[in-house]
Amino acid sequence: MRGVATVAVIGAGAVGCYYGARLARAGHDVRFLMRRDLEAVRARGLEVRSPEGGFRLEAVGAFAEPEAMGIADWVVCSLKTTSLAEAEALVRPCVGPETRVVALMNGYGVEQRFAEWFGPGRVFGAMAFVCINRREPGVVDHLKYGRLSVGHFEDDPEEAEELAAVLRSANLDVVVAPNLLHARWEKLCWNIPFNGLSVAAGGVTTQEIVDDATLRRVAEAAMRETVRVGNADLAAARSAARLDEDEVVGRLFGLTDTMGAYWTSMALDFRDGRPLEVESILGNPARRAAELGAAVPTVDALYALVRFAEASARG
Amino acid sequence: MRGVATVAVIGAGAVGCYYGARLARAGHDVRFLMRRDLEAVRARGLEVRSPEGGFRLEAVGAFAEPEAMGIADWVVCSLKTTSLAEAEALVRPCVGPETRVVALMNGYGVEQRFAEWFGPGRVFGAMAFVCINRREPGVVDHLKYGRLSVGHFEDDPEEAEELAAVLRSANLDVVVAPNLLHARWEKLCWNIPFNGLSVAAGGVTTQEIVDDATLRRVAEAAMRETVRVGNADLAAARSAARLDEDEVVGRLFGLTDTMGAYWTSMALDFRDGRPLEVESILGNPARRAAELGAAVPTVDALYALVRFAEASARG
Question: Which of A137, B84, B128, B150 makes a 20 to 30 Å CA pair with A5?
């Protein structure tokens, strides 16, 4: 997979727009399935603001229907998991015999669904460690970080390197994970405490969490529980890969301590009354922990409180 | 202690008014230190509404200053623990050589303070298992239950029986606890999950907690953690008394399931912008657990979230 790839981005939220724009800038043929931003992007292109150097794509392939997008080499599905039920119908029109499908989504249990729909050999997962927010239509605010951790559903290292090569051609920071499950849990180690607490504490940024000593301890407790259930899940999957609890805690708090007043995606969704990725980020891991017999009381509490907060907000 | 007792009620909130009124109706000489309700009670007396039979006291000894109340046989201190720093100064004017002092308050670590101030031999604790709310000044709404669990600070059974006898003379349901620490933890087994979650979930009644399956599981987890740290604390105090985890869970959820849409005192304080008893109900037990090396992750999470919610509400 060298040269120009055809990439279909399904679900052009902040993450899809950012990585898609980076690939397009590198010369790949990127087509975006857009909803909210469609007219703005058709009229004015797609702008990425970033302290690392912003840019604007003038001519962007922006589509309202996946049927119009054509078969792609790579389909990057960056829908929210709250739309996972729609993903198959939106992705399938872009999938031909050679197409590979990348779930660039949050949460636990996502690739399994894609593997069921499209066959496991063509399915990948990608985890974005990036601070990014949508702005007005056609504009994405890249704030900080951006590393992608990627893996192949069946953990074929050559396949994973194919994906990594495409992404690196856009000068992106890419790590091929020891395996996909490991990468999922590593991402959950951040998402569970910080997305969870950002809503459970009433709608706050990461700064409030790391600056309040007692909230910070709860975040750490949730992170350590996540490492442990992740390792139990890796063991159950007969993987030798493990998360190093203290390394993960040190590294992810180090990143978050310098993140500033960052609004997690879940806090933004909560603030703006959109559906929360509560089941994929909190519910599925909590249920997996229960299956594995791993105690995750802090995660359970965050799951219950976020779920209840969303239900209350919807009245 | 038979016959008529002189009782000074310091801190005439819902609990102080209710039990004081019951004692007054039984013929005891009860004097109330009042703030908010003073003028109303002087003008119209004190009314208790209750499904078990309401009543009104026409002539009530209502005082603005403890110095005017005289020495009492019993001082019942029913201040909120957020006013614990003021308790000594408010109680002392009513304390003579024979006076006994009852802390009818929530939380952990309360009697210790009274023992330091007034000497351990005259200090008692009382835990009210009662659903009760204040209404307009001079009116208390007794909703359900009412059992008092009492103990002497040095666990002198004869002393504890003296207190029980006075309370029973007012036809109150009184249990003399195996020891005071046991009674404290038993009360915390309800207060920690239900006061904690009622605020952490954004300001809800007990009904929302027990009816939501995931919140209910969190409440149960917090209760079980509380039982365990309570038992560790009893062991550390060389007490043979223990809380039976399944019995406590079964009984307290049984009570709460039939409580209806009850607003905990902490949820009411939160709703009305008053200080929360977060340190005595959640913080002190969490710190005691840490001292004992007992893991209480759910309690820690509730403590952090309630503390943060209060701080946020105060801006």
Answer: A137
Q: Is A220 helix (H, G, I), strand (E, B) or coil?
A: helix
Tell me the whole-structure pTM to 2 decimals. 0.91
Which tokens hold the place of B292? 């004992």
Cβ proximity of B30 and B9 under 8 Å: yes
- Nearest-neighbour CA in chain A from B243: distance (Å): 21
CA distance A218 to chain B (A): 6
Structural contact between residues A216 and A227, judged by C-beta atoms closer than 8 angstroms:
no
Tokens 């759910």 found at: B298
Contact B303 A201 (CB under 8 A): no
For residue range B241-251, list pLDDT tens digits in order: 999 999 999 99
State residue A38 phi and psi, 5-degree precision. Answer: -55, -55
Query: pLDDT class for A217, splitting at 50, 70, 90?
Result: very high
Which pLDDT belongs to residue A1?
46
> What is the bridge-based pairing of β-strands B6-10 and A174-176?
unpaired
Q: Where are the alpha helices (DSSP H) in chain A?
A: 14-25, 38-44, 84-91, 110-118, 157-168, 180-190, 196-200, 206-211, 213-236, 245-257, 265-271, 278, 284-292, 297-313
**Could you read off the pLDDT of B137-160 as tens digits, one per residue?**
999 999 999 999 999 999 999 999
Q: What is the pLDDT of residues B224-240, one digit of tens each?
A: 999 999 999 999 999 99
Question: What's the alpha-carbon Rg for chain B, to the nearest Å?
Answer: 19
CA–CA distance, B192 with B256 (Å, rounded to integer): 13
Measured between beta carbons, which residues in chain B are less than 8 angstroms from residue A202?
Answer: 202, 308-309, 312
The residue count of chain A comes to 315
Q: Which of A253, A24, A255 lies closest to A147, judged by CA?
A: A255
C-alpha A113/C-alpha A110 separation (Å) is 6
Q: Do A301 and B302 touch (CB under 8 A)?
A: yes
Q: Are A297 and B221 in contact (CB under 8 A)?
A: yes
Phi, psi (degrees; rounded to nearest 5) at B76: -105, 110
Q: Which residues contact A292 (CB under 8 A, 6 or more apart)?
A: A229, A232, A233, A236
Q: Confidence band (pLDDT; 50, 70, 90) for A178?
A: confident
State pLDDT tens for residues B107-117: 999 999 999 99
Tokens for B107? 């939380």
Secondary structure (DSSP) of B70-107: ---SEEEE---GGGHHHHHHHHGGG--TT-EEEE---S
Catalytic site includes residue B144: no
Which residues in chain B are closer than 8 Å to A297, comparing Cβ atoms?
221, 225, 297-298, 301
Q: CA A63: distance to chain centroid?
A: 22
**Of residues A212, A300, A305, nearest to B221 (C-beta):** A300
Rg (CA), chain A: 19
% chain A with pLDDT above 90:
96
Question: Which residues does chain A have within 8 Å of residue B309's beta carbon, measured at their own beta carbons?
Answer: 201-202
- The shortest C-alpha distance from A88 to chain B (Å) reads 30
